[in-house]
Amino acid sequence: MQPRDSARTSGPGFRVGEVVEVKSREEILATLDKHGELDDLPFMPEMLQFAGRRFPLYRRAVKFCDTKDWTGMHRLDDTVHLEGVRCDGQAHGGCQAGCLLFWREDWLKPVSGDAISADAGSEADPAAAAGCTEADLIAATGEGDEADGTRRYSCQATEITRAGPERLAWWDARVYVRDVRAGNSRVLPMLRSVLVLLFNVVQAGSRRYLPPRLRLIRGGQKFPFVLGQLDRTPKATLDLQPGELVRVKSKEEILATLDRNATNRGLSFDAEMLKYCGTQARVLRRVERIIDEPTGKMLRFNNDCIILEGVICSADFHQYCPRSIYPYWREIWLERVE
Known about the structure:
With 338 residues, the protein is α+β, with helices and mostly antiparallel strands. Helix content is 17%, strand content 18%. The protein is globular and about 60 Å long. The relative contact order is 0.16.
């Protein structure tokens, strides 16, 4: 493939809400190199099952939050997320994180005749027609042996910063304009998000440069003030199973289970989870293993960890990152609805 023009932007291509079709396996494989990648973004074996199927476009992946090295927000071009299309982890040791998949526009095609084609302005290199096979995709999932602990997995989550290396400055207004123009957010919610970000930047400055007695609101803590006070955090055992209906406890009840780092037995309660307090949802699954993004190793959980159906990070306090990651819940933060 010819290298992608780094100056090319993520619009206007496919539109949020537009129904698109995933190209055939053969068409997609023809866009990939021997490592199963297109412009450093892996196409994973788990994605083959969606070939030929149609989905609404959920978000344009104009940016992403780096959950590997925590370097902030990064830019991404010519990439989208599809409605409800998540990784099932079958080619990656049964990882249960359920990440929303990234799709290059080159792997999709329009359904309606008046839609803008994702192929416009790009040409496939004939030499790449046999550049990748399904066996190559499997080989690219990692190296080493799971049995002896040497297995290191490779997936979109572990490699995403290679696909989008450009870091975005929080003060660059173009970051937020792109989101609104892409249809990922409306103007007023985005403005609110920026104001919260500005407030937290000021709060962080007061924590860094001022003595405790002179720090701003609540000692300079970040809004929306998810603060615990415990030295040792409690545990509750509900033995929740997929399909069971639960209610998320109130903010006050959950804060009473957290330490000063807003964690319960090492698992953080994030500000994005507050919006679900008092709401009901069904258990999607118990999480027992996920891939550690910095190392590629499989992490196995000994403590309770729950994912709820339809309960995602909406990034209201994180610049509207479109990744829609599943938050993890301790059972002590939930109660069974009989």
